[in-house]
């Protein structure tokens, strides 16, 4: 599970690209950020939960990284720095959109105390093949949206974008311990949220496709 | 989870409580526990159906959300990003070339394979540097591709979807089919 650890070759490659971009080869910038496009977008989406806004924020953040590249001193990985910019950008935007007032109650409710998983005897596996179906992916995204931001952002970086615990901590500027606590909580909440899938809806035509959620 | 007397006795026999098991379940899945604790959990879930279900559910959640299909960009994302960048960068005459080069693949970023084909239209400074910058994916390297996957992987990669449908081919064939290298198992070439 630690395939994406620090990779010296990758870092050296990036350092050289950055050097060349700083000295005027601007057209190499796309190559620098290309491997991180998905992460930047997903990170923005984890905060604002709206695809159009997330894309806009992603573009802004990437441009900002370009404009401020001279300030990047290589103390962190480039990707960490880029994602930090994205998080800040997304939070700023969200504040401006005053979504804060409407932030789901879950953000206030979810504290980091112990969480009791729902009890049921058997977990019915939701097969990966079901992800071929758009409505299943949408249902998963919806489930994720129901989490408070601090859980959602950790979960997206760690479990969807596969950053290590340490990278996730650096991007969000929290401790690795907090990453683990929030990750546990996020995973347990998602499990509970998606547990109705174990009644077989996942393989049949899902009843929730038209906003009818069997788990409510 | 309620704990009647019988369950608690069993918990004692199992070494750890259900609460401990929940608290560590996420670390268990990530494989970051000490061997001792890991073993205690293994024993616990053999005897405790409810906790086995917690773990199975968590594992399922992590697998589902970790699937590459959950990390897709909206279509046209990259194109719109280029356009935005291009419009906002100090213009250099090479700009168009630059994007063309970057676009000629995730491929070019990855190595010299596509480069030779494209090099007649690539400014010298770029093509020369690219060869030593990117550590190219060896064109003959064996990789695998699954039915609906848009990525190619090393055969051992744990993130292959539809594993039962994989086909083997060389990296150059995969690239020619427009597939991108997996950012996890092939990260050292990216
Ligand atoms: Zn138990
Ligand atoms: Zn892979």
Notes on the protein architecture:
- Chain A is 59% helix and 0% strand.
- Chain A has eleven helices and no strands.
- Chain A has helices spanning 8-22, 29-33, 37-48, 51-67, 78-96, 99-102, 105-109, 134-145, 149-160, 165-172, 176-194.
- The two termini of chain A are 34 Å apart.
- Chain B has three domains: 11-70, no CATH class; 77-119; 142-189, no CATH class.
- In chain B, helix 2 runs parallel beside helix 4 and helix 3 packs across helix 4.
- The longest helix of chain B is centred in the first third of the chain and has 18 residues, at 49-66.
- Classes of the chains: A mainly alpha (216), B mainly alpha (190).
- Chains A and B meet through helix 1, helix 2, helix 3, helix 4 and helix 8 of A and helix 2, helix 4, helix 5, helix 6 and helix 7 of B.
- One zinc ion binds at residues 18, 21, 44, 48, 50-51 of chain B.
Highlighted features:
heterodimer, A: mainly alpha, Rna Polymerase Sigma Factor, Chain: A, Arc Repressor Mutant, subunit A, 59% helix, 0% strand, elongated, B: 190 residues, 3 domains, two-stranded antiparallel sheet, 4 strands, 54% helix, 6% strand, binds zinc ion
């Amino acid at each position: 599970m630690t395939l994406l650890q620090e990779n010296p070759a990758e870092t050296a490659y990036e350092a050289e690209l950055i050097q060349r971009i700083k000295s005027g080869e601007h057209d190499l910038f796309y190559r620098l950020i290309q491997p991180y496009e998905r992460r930047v977008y997903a990170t923005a989406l984890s905060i604002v939960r709206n695809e159009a806004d997330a894309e806009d924020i992603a573009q802004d953040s990437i441009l900002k990284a370009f404009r401020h590249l001279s300030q990047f001193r290589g103390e962190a990985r480039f990707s960490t720095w880029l994602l930090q910019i994205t998080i800040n950008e997304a939070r700023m935007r969200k504040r401006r959109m005053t979504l804060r007032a409407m932030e789901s109650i879950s953000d206030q409710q979810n504290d980091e105390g112990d969480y009791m998983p729902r009890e049921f005897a058997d977990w019915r596996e939701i097969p990966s093949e079901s992800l071929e179906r758009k409505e299943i992916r949408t249902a998963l995204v919806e489930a994720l949206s129901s989490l408070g931001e601090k859980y959602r952002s950790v979960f997206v970086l760690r479990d969807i974008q596969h950053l290590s615990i340490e990278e996730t901590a650096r991007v969000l500027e929290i401790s690795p311990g907090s990453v683990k606590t929030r990750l546990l909580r996020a995973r347990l909440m998602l499990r509970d949220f998606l547990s109705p899938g174990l009644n077989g809806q996942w393989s049949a035509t899902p009843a929730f496709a038209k906003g009818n959620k069997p788990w409510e | 989870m309620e704990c009647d007397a019988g369950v608690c006795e069993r918990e004692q026999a199992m070494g750890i409580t259900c609460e401990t098991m929940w608290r560590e379940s996420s670390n268990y899945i990530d494989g970051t526990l000490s061997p001792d604790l890991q073993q205690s959990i293994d024993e616990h879930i053999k005897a405790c159906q409810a906790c086995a279900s917690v773990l199975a559910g968590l594992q399922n959640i992590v697998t589902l959300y970790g699937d590459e299909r959950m990390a897709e960009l909206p279509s046209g994302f990259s194109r719109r990003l280029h356009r935005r960048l291009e419009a906002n960068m100090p213009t250099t005459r090479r700009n168009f070339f630059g994007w063309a080069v970057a676009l000629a693949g995730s491929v070019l970023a990855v190595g010299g394979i596509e480069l030779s084909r494209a090099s007649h239209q690539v400014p010298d400074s770029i093509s020369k540097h690219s060869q030593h910058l990117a550590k190219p994916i060896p064109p003959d390297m064996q990789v695998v591709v699954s039915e609906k996957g848009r990525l190619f992987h090393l055969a051992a990669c744990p993130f292959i979807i539809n594993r039962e449908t994989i086909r083997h081919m060389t990296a150059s064939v995969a690239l020619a089919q427009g597939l991108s290298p997996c950012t996890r198992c092939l990260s050292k070439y990216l």
